[in-house]
Amino acid sequence: MEGNVQEVKRVAVIGAGCAGLVALKECLEGNLQVVCFEKNNKIGGLWNIKDGKKDKDYKGPTVYPSLVMNTCKETSTCSDHPVQDDWPNFLPWSLFLEYLESYANRFQLRQHIKLNEEIVEVSRLDTERPNGRGWKVVHKNTTTGSESTDTFDAVIVASGFFTEEYWPAYKGMDMFTGTFSHSGSFFTAEEYKDKDILVVGGSYSAGDVATEIAVLSRNMFVSATHGFWVLPRLLDGYPHEAAYSTRIVNDVISIEDLRASLEEKVIKHVDPFEYGFNPARRFLRQSHMFNDEIWRLKRDGKVQVVPGIKEFTEDSVIFSDGSTHHIDHVIFCTGYKTKCSFLKDMQHDSAIDLNLYKHMFPVGVPWADDTLAFVGFWDSLGVYLPCMELQSRFIVSVLKTHPRYKRPESVEKTWLNSKFRQNLSSLTFSSFSLVIETLSLYKLSQLSMNIGGIETC
Ligand SMILES: Cc1cc2nc3c(=O)[nH]c(=O)nc-3n(C[C@H](O)[C@H](O)[C@H](O)COP(=O)(O)OP(=O)(O)OC[C@H]3O[C@@H](n4cnc5c(N)ncnc54)[C@H](O)[C@@H]3O)c2cc1C
């Protein structure tokens, strides 16, 4: 046992969304003393909507009331808390939030969660020494504004990957007299009735938002620079995950064979070229959406697909093919940036700059001593909760191990330079193999092997 490694007893978890709840539960299971800080007045993170409307008091992005999960209930939930049999295959946001609440109740998590407490600073007490005496954690009460400071042996960041809306910039936007918004604040289609609407983006939220508004708007244009692929939630009668999240896919089938087989299945269902969605690159090398409506609306003229934006004029948008359309309102469905502004000693502008080894431990920060860990920091095709659950188990096992798990320097260097890491922030991977690496089953297998799991068929 290494003498200078401080034993981890007290852990702070930041956030009580999916990631924070599973991290809290796994810490308790590992007999650690844990406090979970949540800046909002309720648990559940992104899935918080009140009575089908935006809760004005909720700080941060949320999903929209029409959202139905794009992953099925069997694969989207935790190993130790199965979802009710009579719930639908693909859960609407309200049932998923109910699931998270029942998870918190079942494992008696609420008594360990401090609501309305925002973490404003996390810093190492001593960056000079390897065992650094732990972490200073400053938290602010969001109702009274009063600040308090605590110390913890370890910190688990579960504050969310989708934290800040990403807004692209185009020439002429400043002279445009129409209005702009982001899918992160989309709640009802009513306000777009009889208007000319432009949805920018070719991924999940672009499909959801466009199809919901298209039945009411005068014109609905969807602009995607490279077009997009459309996947139904059910492929050949099975949840789409069944087509790629299997051991045979992970371990036996070549990447090109898998791509060809997936493309064949997808095209059989909705041929993106016939419908004018025109993906410029092959499947999973660019945007795709899970959507069961958009091709019908396109067929019926309710949705028009246009290429990338060239520039804005006073009341219109000019597209890269030279076409021009009058637009009243633009909704950017362009995703999110990741910010952890409380990490004062680790400046970063994006999730990539965070340099998380296997999405969990900061690379090149030796003084963090693997007592600063992240849960849920990736963007991937596939499910989140089960991967977060295994990440949490892995992190707890690292925190409780003496000497702590040490990555060889060469492993860190390889990770820093890997194309995989450089492509992490989007699904527009240059290589299909990079996509495979982020698929949830692959991640689950890798993580579970690392903590002594056994692969079963
Ligand atoms: C539109 C959309 C659709 C999605 N659909 C699916 C799907 O179908 N299936 C699926 O598996 N995943 C889906 N996801 C992925 C989703 O991100 C995960 O399912 C999951 O909700 C992420 O949980 P999280 O805990 O990491 O983050 P969040 O849900 O964002 O929770 C983070 C929590 O941390 C709190 N917090 C943040 N900063 C602080 C701070 N400084 N101090 C204290 N508290 C803080 C926040 O208030 C929040 O409660 C979707 C995501 C989006 C955006």
TrEMBL record:
Asked if the record carries the keyword rRNA-binding, the reply is no
State the organism named in the record: Owenia fusiformis (Polychaete worm)
- InterPro entries to which the protein is assigned, alphabetical: FAD/NAD-bd_sf, Flavin_mOase, Flavin_mOase-like, FMO-like
Q: What EC number(s) is this enzyme filed under?
A: 1.-.-.-
Has UniProt tagged this entry with the keyword Flavoprotein?
Answer: yes
Its subcellular locations are: Endoplasmic reticulum membrane
- Catalytic activity, reaction form: hypotaurine + NADPH + O2 + H(+) = taurine + NADP(+) + H2O; N,N-dimethylaniline + NADPH + O2 + H(+) = N,N-dimethylaniline N-oxide + NADP(+) + H2O; hypotaurine + NADH + O2 + H(+) = taurine + NAD(+) + H2O; trimethylamine + NADPH + O2 = trimethylamine N-oxide + NADP(+) + H2O
Per its Swiss-Prot or TrEMBL entry, what cofactor is needed?
Answer: FAD
Per its record, how is this protein called by name? Flavin-containing monooxygenase
Q: Name one GO molecular function term.
A: trimethylamine monooxygenase activity
Source organism, top-level taxon: Eukaryota
Cellular component annotations (GO), alphabetically ordered: endoplasmic reticulum membrane
Its placement in the membrane is given as:
Single-pass membrane protein
Q: What does the function comment of this entry state?
A: Broad spectrum monooxygenase that catalyzes the oxygenation of a wide variety of nitrogen- and sulfur-containing compounds including xenobiotics. Catalyzes the S-oxygenation of hypotaurine to produce taurine, an organic osmolyte involved in cell volume regulation as well as a variety of cytoprotective and developmental processes.
What are the alphabetically sorted keywords of the record?
Endoplasmic reticulum, FAD, Flavoprotein, Membrane, Monooxygenase, NADP, Oxidoreductase, Transmembrane, Transmembrane helix
Q: Name the family the entry cites.
A: Belongs to the FMO family.
